[in-house]
Amino acid sequence: MNDYESNAKQELIKWKKKMRKKPSIIERGTNKAQGKFNDLLPQKYHEIMTVAIKSMVKAVLFGYKYITKKPYTDLTLEERENLVKEKTKIYKKTAMIEGAGTGAGGFLIGLADFPLLLGIKVKLLYDISAIYGYDVRDYKERIYILNIMEIAFSSKEHRKTVFEQMENWGEYTNTLPSDINDFDWKKFQQEYRDYLDLAKFFQLMPGIGAVVGLCVNGNLIEKLSETAIFAYRMRYNEINKL
């Protein structure tokens, strides 16, 4: 084990502890407040979000043939993660430009940000998966990608449940159904929405929407990339027995 791998393992241990923590009283209270906030949002907003997330899940599950890259081989962990960081910079810039553009257009144009940002996130995760050497032609790898999005953008309580599945990925994949249509996309979209609703709502407001869209989208891409790095480190660690 070289110095980079040793440091990566220590960072992974800390991240795992964070993932296993139970939600605090404040966090549980925040979830309840989020539920009340959702009731105040326009019906059109809910419709756009539901359709966008459902379409994104279908794109991950069934549209992989059109955006799949060959898995990278014969690279060290450091080389892989340097590539991930370079990819993240590109996708972050794209997401920030997109967020600023749609945020400046008011409510109706701002709604277009949701499906556009989802597409950027999915493409980033496909690239990251390939960089770590995984082939998304295997539908279980696409489920893993959706799990990464779940732990990046969901409540702490739900995140803990999904993390436990990912931590024991080999055992969990043996329980997956042969029919990919059985994926619980409704649960996924609700958790994802609850995480994003408040921040993204301000992106729809005239005057501040462009600034909010630029900042929020950039932060969301950074968070997703960081989560993906740790998620794939878990598997690298298991395979290489670091």
From TrEMBL:
It comes from Romboutsia faecis. This is EcsC family protein. PANTHER family: PROTEIN ECSC (PTHR41260). InterPro entries: EcsC (IPR024787).
